[in-house]
């Protein structure tokens, strides 16, 4: 599993390999945080973020529905809520299946 710290290190290493070394570890953190923050703000505003070859993040609204408490078998009403759906792009799907 890759966490945020590992992602920052991987971005630093990848950019260095490409000949674009990052000046500091803090700068790499700011870059990763900026990308994540921009995606978050865009989806929160109701827009879809589509990254060609990677996938898209789309805001969705889940309808209210009835569910059952498995312990008591009572019916419970689950309210509508907002969520995010990620749909992988074709290139990502191909890469995973290789």
Side by side, the strands of the main sheet go 1-2-5
Output the structural class.
alpha+beta
Question: How can the largest sheet be summarized?
Answer: 3 strands, antiparallel
Helix content: 40-55%
Beta fraction of the residues? Answer: 25-35%
Q: Could you spell the SSE succession in H and E letters?
A: HHEEEEEH
Radius of gyration: 19 Å
Which regions have little confidence, pLDDT < 50, spanning 5+ residues? Answer: none
Average pLDDT number: 95
Q: How many H/I helical runs?
A: 3
From the spread of the alpha carbons, the general shape counts as elongated
The total count of strands amounts to 5
* Amino- and carboxy-terminal Cα gap: 19 Å
Secondary structure blueprint with pairings:
Elements: H1 4-17, H2 25-44, E1 49-51, E2 55-62, E3 65-68, E4 75-78, E5 81-88, H3 90-97
Helix pairs in contact: 1-2
What would you note in describing this structure?
The protein is α+β, with helices and mostly antiparallel strands and 98 residues long. The chain has three helices and five strands. The chain has helices at residues 4-17, 25-44, 90-97; strands at 49-51, 55-62, 65-68, 75-78, 81-88. The strands form two sheets. A three-stranded antiparallel β-sheet has the order 1-2-5. A hairpin with a 6-residue loop joins strand 3 and strand 4 (75-78).
Short description:
With 98 residues, the chain is an alpha+beta fold.
Give structural attributes.
3-stranded antiparallel β-sheet, two-stranded antiparallel sheet, 3 helices
């Amino acid at each position: 599993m890759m966490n945020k710290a590992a992602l920052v290190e991987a971005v630093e290493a990848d950019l260095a390999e490409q000949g674009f070394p990052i000046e500091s570890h803090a700068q790499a953190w700011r870059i990763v945080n900026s990308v994540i923050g921009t995606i978050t703000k865009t989806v929160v505003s109701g827009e879809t973020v589509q990254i060609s070859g990677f996938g898209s993040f789309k805001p969705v609204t889940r309808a209210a529905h009835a569910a059952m408490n498995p312990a008591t078998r009572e019916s419970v009403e689950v309210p509508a809520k907002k969520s995010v759906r990620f749909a992988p792009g074709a290139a990502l799907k191909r890469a995973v299946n290789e």
